[in-house]
Amino acid sequence: MARLADYFVLVGYDPGKRGSGDGQGQILQRFPEKDWEDNPFPQGIELFCQPSGWQLFTERNPPTFFVAVLTDINSERHYCACFTFWEAVESAQPQSHSRNGEEEEEEPSSPVQPAQLFAPKSLVLVSRLDHAEVFRNSLGLIYTIYVDGLSVSLENVIGNLLTCTIPITGGAQRTISLGAGDRQVIQTPINDSLPVSSCSVALLFRQLGITNVLYLFCAALTEHKILFLSSSYQRLTDACRALLALMFPLKYSFTYVPILPAQLLEVLSTPTPFIIGVHSIFQSETQELLDVVIADLDGGTVNVPECVHISLLPEPLLQQTREALSMVLDPELEVADLAFPPSTISASSLKMQDKEIRAVFLRLFAQLLQGYRWCLHIIRIHPEPVIRFHKAAFLGQRGLTEDDFLTKVLEGMAFAGFVTERGAPYRSIDLFDELVAYEVKRMHTEEGNKQKILRHIKELAEKLYKNENPYPAVTMHKVQKPTEGCHLRLHQKPFPRLDEGTVQWIIDQATAKLQTAPPAVKAEKKCMVPSGPPIAAIMERNGNALANSARRLEVVRNCISYVFENKMLEAKKLFPAVLRAMKGRAARHCLTQELNLHVQQNRAVLDHQQFDFIIRMMNCCLQDCTAMDEHGIAAALLPLVTAFCRKLSPGITQFAYSCVQEHVVWTNIQFWEAMFYCDVQNHIRALYLDNNEENHTDEESTEGPQEAKSALEIASEQLRLWPTMSREKQQELIQKEESTVFSQAIHYANRMSYLLLPLDTSKNRLLRSSGLGDVESVSNSFVTNSIAGSVAESYDTESGFEDAESSDVANYVVRFINRFVDKVCTESGVTNEHLKGLHVMIPDIVQMHIETLDAVHRESRRLPPIQKPKLLRPNLLVGEECVMEGLRVYLMPDGREEAAGGYIGGPPLLPAEGAIFLTTYRIIFKGTPTDPLVGEQVVIRSFPIASLTKEKKLTNVQGQVEHLIQECWQLRSCTFQLLRIAFDEEVASDSAEVFRKHLHKLRYPQHVRGTFAFTVGQSPKQAMQPKAKEKNPSLRTLSKNLVKNAKKTIGRQYVTRKKYTPPMWEQRSSQHFPEDNEDEISVSEEMDRSTLTPTTTIKPSDKMTINHLVERACCRDYQRMGLGTLSSSLTRSKNEPFRISTVNRMYAICRSYPGLLIVPQSIQDNTIQRISRCYRQNRFPVVCWRNSRTKAVLLRSGGLHGKGVVGLFKSQNAPTAGPSQTDSTSLEQEKYLQAVINSMPHYADASGRNTLSGFTSAHMSSSGLGHRARVITLSTPKCVSAKGRETPRGKWGSIRASGRMSSYALNVEIGSRLAGKDLLGAQHNGTPSEASFLRPHRASLYIIGDKSQLKGVKPDPLQHWEVVPIEVFDVRQVKASFKKLMKACVPGCLSTGDTSVTYLRSLEESEWLSQIHKILQISVLVVELLDTGSSVLVSLEDGWDITTQVVSLVQLLSDPYYRTLEGFRLLVEKEWLSFGHRFSHRGAQTLAGQSSGFAPIFLQFLDCVHQIHLQFPMEFEFSQYYLKFLSYHYISNRFRTFLLDSDYERIELGLLYEEKGERKSQQVYKSIWDYIDRLNKKAPIFFNYMYAPEDGEVLRPYSNISNLKVWDYYTEETLSEGPSYDWELAQGQPEHVEEADRQDTSAPQTKRKIIWPCYDNRSRVEPDAISKLLEELHNLEMELGQVPERWKDTWDKVKASQRTEARPEGSRTPSSLLMSSSLSHHRRSLGVYLQESGVGSTLNLSLDSDTSSTSTPSSGKQGGRKSTSTLYSQFQMSESENRSYEGSLYKKGAFMKPWKPRWFVLDKTKHQLRYYDSRMDTECKGVIDLAEVESITPGAPTMGAPKTVDEKAFFDLKTTKRVYNFCAQDVQLAQQWIDRIQSCLSDA
C-alpha cells in the first residue's frame, strides 16, 4: 500500500521580495510539518508552482492545474500537482498581520498606487504516484470548499487526503472520500512495470505527426538532447510522459524535467542528454542551443540542428513502423482511393488509439531485441546475479554490425539499465517478456500482411488498455465543482490559514492505526524468464545464407583432413579455394569446428608443413574479422591457437599463437571482456551441473535432459532455491563462484600475454595496428638461413640494450592486462586480496613468457627453408647467350586481367614463381604459377632488351605472394610487355643491382656495334673489338673510301661524325630556327664548289659504288616505275622527264638520302647542290613514286628553312637590292618546282588554277575540331555520277555510308582548324559539297607543308603550284601518346573499378587513334590528288618522320605492288631505310639516344597499314602476323636491317654491301628480309589466304576514329611461350612438335582442347582450316616419303582448280568465296574477314542498309543489292556439306492432308531432319528438330497411304509437338532410316 499524497503545500506570492524585478514565491504552510522518514520533502517547490515566474496581475484569471515532475537524488520521481488561483493583494497592511506568518511589507516605492493587483496562490500535492485526475479532483474540491464557503472543515479534508492509502499495483480498485460528500474511484494498473499513458501518446502524434515523433523517439534512444516547447504546461507534461511511454521497455535515465522553471533555464546548456519542457515564451532563449532537438508542440515542428545526426531505425523496421502507425492513426488512408469506400471505418477512441500506438512500438522493440537473452552472460549467480550483455555477438548474429542506431542503443545507459533489470533469469515477467519470447515467430510470418499486423496490434492494445483500466464499467466519481465564474467575485476572502494541529492529529491517528494493522504482503509471482528462439533460428528464415556454401564447407573440410593425413599435394591444390571460401562466415565457423576435432587433450603437435597450412588458414580466417569479432571467429580460434604447435627442437615448442598475432582483434579490450565472461559463464554452469549430478547419481534417466540446460536456466533454478539454503551453504557457493572467476582471470592474463607479446620481443615492436607485418607472423619456415643468421648476429651483439627494449613491450602488455583485470574483476565481484595477488602475478607471467619466446624465436630462425620449385631454364636463340643466371623472382600480376583469372574466371596464372634471366638479346621470365590449380603450366614472359622503355622500383606490392619479398621492379617494354618482378628473399640486393647494371649496359651500348645484331654469335667480351668482324676486306675498304670521300667533299664542316648533330627535336621550335643552328643544318656557304660538279670520269672505287647503288631497292623500284634507268641518266636521253642522278653518291649533298635520286631531267646537278640548302637537313624534293595512269608524281623533302621561304612564297614585288645569294637560290628552287610540273604530260596552263586554297579554307579547316574526329558520312548521290565517270578505279573501306563515292577522301579534320573558318560547305564525311569543284581548276603541284612554317604565305596567281598548310603533331606528341597507349593496354597496376571503362577512357586520353586518323587522312588526301592527276610534294618536319609515314602510305594505297610481300619489303627499304628514317635515334638504341627516349614512328606506320588491312582484307598478300612481326623486330635489334639512321651510316659500318659475301653462316640472319623469305618458304605464316587483289586498285580507307580498331598486337600476349615472333623459340624444331602432337591425339586421351586467353598461342593450338590442311598434307607427304611440295605451290594449284570449278558450277562453296578473285567487287567490299589467327574462320559481314546506292563502276554490276538474308546464306555453310544421310520418303501431311513424297536430309551436325520438295530443291520446306523427338516406332498405314508399299515400311516419329507418319520405298530403307535417326538421337 502507498500514500496517495505525501505532502500538501500552500504556496503564495512573497510580497517582501517584490522590489527585485521578478517576484518570488514562498511556502505559506505545509502538512505534515515533519518530513516522512521514507520520503523527505522536495526542495524548490515554489519555483515549479509558477514556472514562468511569480508576477502580479491586474485582473483575476481562472484557476489552472498542471502536474510538474521533480526527480530527487535517488532518481525517484515526485509528481507535484499544482492548482493555482488568484487573490487580491492588499495595498497597505497594518503591522498586526505580521504574526499571520507573512513578513512585513515594505513601503511602496512609488507614491501613486496602481489599480488593484492580484497575486497567484497555489495548492500543491506532492506524491510519488501519478494519478493526475485524482489530484485535479481533490485540489478542486478544496478550492470549491473555500470559494463557495461550504460547511466542511478544510483541515479534515486535507487530513483525509494525506492519510489515504491505496495499493500500488495488482489492478485493485479503491473508492475514497475526503469527507465532503465526495466519492472517487481509483484504479491501479495491473502491472506497474508498464507505463500508464492515458491519452498522452495519441495526443503527441496528433501534435507532431508520425515522422517527427519517430525522429524524437530515435533521438531519445540514441541519447540526444530533446526540448519541448508549448504554451500549455499540461501538454508539456503529457508530451514528456508520452515519449517515455514509447521507450518502454527501456527506461530513460538522464535529466527529465517536463516543466522547467524560468530561473533554471541555464540547465539547458548542460552537456548530458535530457528531455525537458519549457514554456514557449522562452523560445528566444532556446535559439542559440546548437545541439538540442527542439519540438514545438503548438506548431507541430521538430527542428534538428545541422550538427546533430540522428541515427534512424534500421530498414526494413523503419518502413514497417511507419506503415503500422499510419494504419492506426489514419485508417481512412487505405480506402481513400476506393470508388465505394466503406462507411464504417473510423479511428478508435483517443484512449484506444493511444494503446495501439504503444503496441506498434512494443512490437518494434520485440523485433529489435529479439533473441537478446541468448547474448546474456551470467557471471555470478550468488549473492546476487551479475549479468553482462555480449553486444558484438548480438549485432553479428543479427547482421547489423554496420547499423548506427542499434549500436548506439546497445551502448546507451537505457540499455544498460534494461540488462540489469530484465537480464535477471528469475523474476516476475510482463507483456514485453512474453512478446519477445513467444511472438517473434508470429511477427516474422505476418510480415507484409497488413490485416494480420493490425490484428496483432489491436490484441496488444487491448492488453495495455486492460492494464490501465482493469474495471472499465466504473465511472462513479462524485466531486463538487465550484459555481461558474466564482473566481470573478469581487469580495472574495483570502484563503484561510489552516490549523496545523488538527491536520497533524488526523495524520498521527492514521499512522498509529497502520502500525497495528498486519503488513499487507503482496506475493510476487516470480518465475524463470523464457528465452525465446535463438537469433540464429530467426535469422535463417531471412535466408541470407549463401546457396553454394555446402560445397564450400566440403572443400574446407577436405583440405583440413588432407593436411592432417599429410597429403600435402592435395591440400595445396584445394588451398586457394579454401582461402576464397574463407570470405564466408560459414566457412570460417566450419574451419574452427574442424580444427577442434583434431585437438586431443588441449594439444596437437604438427610437422612444419602442416603447421604452415594451419597458420595460413587461421590468418586468412582472422584477416576479415573486425576488432569487434561479431561472428565469434576469433573467440573460437582463441583456444586453438594455444593448442596447435610444432616441435622446434627438444624441449622447445612453437605454438600457433606466435604466428597469428597480427590482427586488430587481439588489441581490443572489449573482445577480451566478452571472451572472459563467456568462459566464466561456462565454468559457472559446469559448477552447478556437477552439483546436480552428485545429487542425482541414482536417477540416471534425468541426467540427459539436464545436460542441455542453459546457464540462465540453471541460474534461475539456483535463485529460486537461494532463500531456502542454509547460511553455510550460501557462503560456500559464493566462495566457489568467486574462485572460479579468479582462476579464469589468471588464465586470461596468460592468454593475453601469448597474443600480445611479439615473437621477437627484442625488436621493440609494440602492438601492430594492422596488416601482416613481420616475417614471423606469416610463417617462420619461410625465413631462409642466410637472412636469419645475419639477423641473429646483429641482435646478439646488442644484447646490452635488449632488456631495456623488451621491457618496453613488456610494460605495455602488463599495463594492458592490468586494465583488463581491474575491470572484469571489479564487475564480477572478485575479492580485493585476490585482485592484489593478480596484480603481483601479471608482470611475472609476462616476463616468463618473454623468456620462452626468446628460445622459440632463436630456434624458429634455424629452420630449413621450405622447398621452392626448381628454376626452369629458357630456350635461347642460336647465338644468344646468358649474361646473368636466373635470379629467383615472382612475376606479379599487372593490369592485364585475364592472366590473373580476372573477368573470365579460372585460376590466376599470375603471380608466378620462377626466375628472371638476362641474355644478350632478351630479358626472360620463366616460372610456374603460384596457384596450385595451374601449377603444371609454364609461364614465360620476355622481351628484347632493346625494347625496354622504362624501369621503376615499386614500393607497395600487395601481398599476393606469401613469401618475403625484398624489392620489386617494374620493367616496361615497347613491345607491350610488362615485367613486374619481386625478388625473392634469397636474392641478395647487390645481385639485383648487378642485374640492373648489366641491363643498362646492354640496353644502351656505347655504339651500335654493341647491339645484339652485331654481337650475336660472339662471346660478349669481344663485342667491343671491331677488328674481329672484318670478314670481307674489299667491301670494308670500299666503305672506308666512300666515307673518306664524303668527308673530303664536304670540307671542314663534317670532319668527325660527332659534329653532325642535328638539333634535338625538342629544342627545335616549329615556328623558326634560331639563327646559329642554320649553318649546322644547311651545308655552309664557303664550300668548295668544284667538288660538287658531277665528275665525268668516275674513279674505280666509285664505279663499284655505283654498281652497288644500282642494286639497292630504290633503284629497282625506279626502274619498275619507268622513272629512268641509270644508263639513261648518264647518257641524258632527253625524252624522259626524270633522270636518276648520282649527285649524292658520295652522300655529300645530303647524308640522310640514298646515293641515287630521281630529279627532273632539266635540272643540273650543281643546281641541286644550291637548292638543297633551302631545306632542312638538305633534304631537297625528290621524286619517289609516279602514278602509272595519270603520270602524276609524288615527291618528298624536308621542311623549308626560313631562307628559302622568303624568296619562294612571300610576295615577289618587294624591291630587292641586287640579286642576292638567297634570291638566286629561291629562283632556282622555283625553277626546280616548275621542272617537276612540266614533267607532267597533261600539264596545261589552265586559266584559273589554284583553287585548292578555296578548298582548304572551306573544307579543311574546322575551327573547333580537336583530336576526336567527328564521324561524318556522305549523302549526296549526285556526286556518285560526277565522280564515277572520272575515276574508273578506287575503292572505299566498306560501304556503310549510303552514297559513299570516291571523290574526296577528306574527312573533316584534314589539316584540322586550318584557316580558322568553320566548315562552310562541307557535307557529311567531309566531302566537298559540289563534287565537281576540283575538276576544271586544279593546280599541277600541291605542296603539303607544315602550317606553322608557311605563315604569311600569299597564294600567287602566276604559280602553278599551291601550298596546302596542315597541322601535324610532332615527335614529342607521338612519344607522349605512345606512353599513354602502353599504360592503357598494359596497365602497371591492378585496377579497382570497371576495367573496360577505365581501359577505354585511358585509350581515348592517349590520343593514339587520333594520330593514326590524322596520318590516314592526309594520306588519303594525297592519294586523291595523285589520282586526279596533280603531283604532290610532301614537305613536313625534317622529312624523315611524318613525311615518311605519309609517303609510304600513299604508295601503299595507290599501288597494288606494294601490297605484296616483295613490294612491301621494297617500300620499307626505299622510303624508310634509304631515305634515312632515323631508326637508331628514334629507337633510342645507343647510349647517345638514351635521353631522347623511344618514338614509335615506324610502329605508327605499321598500325596504319593494319587499319587498312582490316578494311581491305583481300587486297594484301601478307597477313596481320607479318605486320606484328615487323613491329616486334624493328625494335628488337635481332636483325641489322633496322639499325642506324641512314644508308651513309650503314656504309660507314660496312653493313650495306655485306649481304653478298656473308651467306656462309646460315643460322644467324643479319637481314630480317632473308629471315622472312626463309620462313615464308617453310610455312604460310606471313601469307593472307584471302588475298585476291583487283587490278590497279586504289584503296581509300575510312579514317574516322570510329572505324579504327585497337591493334591486338598491343593487347594480346602468349604466356605459354612468350612473344611468338622469334619463330625458332616458339616452334622448337617444327617437325618434332608436330610428331609429338600426333602421338598425343592417337593416345586414348580426350580430344578436347582448352584454349586460354593470354596463355595459349591460339593460331598454333587451333590453326585456321587452311593452315591445318596444308600442314596435314605436308605430314602425309613426309610419311609417304615424298619430297614435300612447297606450300605455296600447293596453294596456287588449289586456287587454280577452284577458279575453274567455280565457273561451271553455279553454287560456290565458302572456300571459293574466299579465294576466287573473280568475285564481283560488289560483294568483296562487304569485307569478309578471315581473322589472322582465328579459330576456324570468322566471317564478319558489314552489310549496308541502303539498297539503292550504286557500287563503284569497276564492279561491273550496277544493280541494287540482294536482300540481306540471301547474302547471309551464301556465307553460311552450304547445306550440302552437312548431309549425313538423305533419301526420299513419303510423309503424311498434318491433319486431313494427303501423303506426299518428299526429299529428306538427316543432318547430324545441325541435329535436325530437313525436307525439301524434290532432290534439286534448295528451299527447305520444313525442319524437324531431333532434340524434340521423343520416340521412333514402326507405324501402320493410314488413309490415303501409297498402296504398293509393304506395311512394315511405315514408321512414326513422335515429337513433343506432334506425330509424323513416314513411309519408305521398302522395308530395308525404312529400317535404315530408323537406325540412322536412332543413332543420331543416342549420339546427342
The tally of strands reads 44
Structural class: alpha+beta
Give a quick account of the main beta sheet: strands, pairing sense, barrel closure: 7 strands, antiparallel
Backbone shape? elongated
Mean pLDDT equals: 74
Distance between the termini: 90 Å
Assembly form of the protein: single chain
Secondary structure: helix percent: 25-40%
C-alpha Rg (nearest Å): 51 Å
Low-confidence runs of at least 5 consecutive residues: 92-112, 540-547, 694-707, 764-806, 1020-1037, 1048-1101, 1128-1132, 1203-1222, 1244-1291, 1293-1336, 1555-1563, 1629-1645, ...
Strand order of the largest sheet: 25-24-23-22-28-27-26
| Share in β-strands | 5-15%
Count of helix runs: 62
Q: Can you walk through the features of this model?
A:
With 1884 residues, the chain is of the alpha+beta class. Strands 25-24-23-22-28-27-26 form a 7-stranded antiparallel sheet. It has a 7-stranded antiparallel sheet with strand order 41-40-39-38-44-43-42, covered by helices on one side. A 5-stranded antiparallel sheet has the order 3-2-6-5-4. The two termini are 90 Å apart. The relative contact order is 0.04.
